[in-house]
Amino acid sequence: MSADVRLAGLTSWYSDWKGLRVAVLGLSMTGFSVADTLTELGADVLVLSESATDEYERLVPVIGARLELGALDDVPAALREFAPEVVIASPGFPPAHPVIRWVQESGIALWGDVELAWRVRDKVRRADGSTADWVLITGTNGKTTTTQLTATLLAEGGLRAAPCGNIGVPVLDAVRDPEGFDVLVVELSSHQLWYLGLSQPEGQPFPYAAVCLNLADDHLVWHGGADAYRDAKAIVYRNTRVACVYNKADEATRRMVEDADVVEGARAIGFDLGTPGPSDLGVVEGLLVDRAFLDDRARSALELTTVVDLDRVGLAAPHIVQNILAAAALARSLGVEPEAIHAALQSFRLDAHRIQVVARHAGITWIDDSKATNPHAAASSLRAYPGAVWVVGGDLKGVDIADLVAEVGGTARAAVVIGVDRAGVVTAFERHASTVPVFEVDAGDTGQVMNRVVEIAAGIVDDGGTVLLAPAAASFDQFSSYADRGNRFAEAVREWIERGSADDAGGSPSGL
């Protein structure tokens, strides 16, 4: 039996996976979930990774796989000798990676972890014998928040829902949970979607519902350009069975739905902050309403919640309201009642580092939106807090920040620029928002970056004003992650407050 024929028949947990030679590239959380699944299925597994945590290095042989650690800037001899029938790559491996190119040029099947999860999705079935429905979520920004929201709304509606995928819980872990789920809410990065785009028909998910929240330039180096990035995101709608949810304020998402090859009968459901038409969700006089999932949608609407109610729990920023509408559309497509949506939103809280108020002191509000790692996300934050002192910069990942500064930079009280790509940010302000005061923080001692940021911002912010960390850039130039960047910002704010309190009490400010 040829490898192609055998792989085409691997469409169930209960298919014959025994002895299948599979190479797994990368040993992060995702890579380990792949190796663990395949060894459980009886496959012959070789894991290749440049590095590994002590825990994973210890566990790989325990589960019955082999591990090769070392450089992957060329095709390892161990991989060639193994002669894999399929290679499953962690999403960090870009299309231009030499090992990925070798796999494709050699005609070896190339999968991602999501394709494997779809193929073995029937390990645990529901009481009626069916498998969990999948809801797919992507977008340049808001993916994690919308994934969490959707799972929360579904749970309030009485469904067992698991947020998984790019959110931090591998899809394979959710598929293998012995309790089983009614719905898997799968956050997908553009990297995971690129790998799904390679899949043969038997490896392609048929989601119950799907959404691309928005589209803006990001990960252009990984994909090789904006068109390739857009094409990867559009894969989220492929084979959708019931509801293709799209952002009416983002033309690119509407075109994705129009061009998608979906199951006959799937509906296009729009959302935005304006008055909704039939088959849409939107906002009318402070009410979030559904005109898509009711019988008389031509003349009626169902109230989901109010902007006032959302404001009470810190969810009223415009881009968060958009996420809520998208999540509500997905939940409504699965039958969750409006009352359940309203109830769930009263207790939902955003993750840390997503427009998180870290302090209010001496008339200043300090906000950590370190998760705004690209221009599109930063623009949403600035629109929510016009007049803020904007902390911006980092590793721009090849993205030109000029359009962002031209669009909303002029609304800032001032800009405090950090990171290795400061020159491009400063130039953008000189050209497009020259009246905004700009202050640079030298890379220097990265451990002191945020202390200097806070000192500068505190000296220029207006009474009653806001300091907003919304970098529009990745964090790895100076920090270990966006969370580390946000934590250091919050710590520096707390130290500044403590120094001010000591000063007021007659003490001497430290560090001066």
Please, could you describe this protein's structure?
With 512 residues, this protein is of the alpha/beta class. It folds into 3 domains: 3-111, Rossmann fold (3-Layer(aba) Sandwich), CATH 3.40.50; 123-345, 3-Layer(aba) Sandwich (UDP-N-acetylmuramoyl-L-alanine:D-glutamate ligase); 356-504, Protein-Tyrosine Phosphatase, Chain A. 37% of the residues lie in helices and 18% in strands. It is built from 20 helices and 20 strands. The protein has helices at residues 3-8, 29-41, 54-63, 77-82, 98-105, 113-119, 143-156, 171-175, 190-196, 220-223, 226-234, 251-259, 307-312, 318-333, 338-345, 375-384, 402-408, 422-432, 449-460, 482-504, and strands at 21-25, 44-49, 66-69, 86-89, 109-111, 133-138, 161-165, 183-187, 209-212, 243-247, 267-271, 280-284, 287-290, 302-306, 356-361, 364-368, 389-392, 414-417, 438-440, 466-469. The strands form 3 sheets. A 9-stranded mixed β-sheet has the order 7-8-6-9-10-11-12-13-14, sandwiched between helices. The protein has a 6-stranded mixed β-sheet with strand order 15-16-20-17-18-19, with helices on both faces. Helix 7 (143-156) crosses helix 14 (318-333), helix 7 crosses helix 15 (338-345) and helix 9 (190-196) crosses helix 11 (226-234). The longest helix has 23 residues, at 482-504. It starts with a helix and ends in an 8-residue tail after the last helix. 51% of the residues are buried. The model is unreliable at 505-512 (pLDDT under 50).
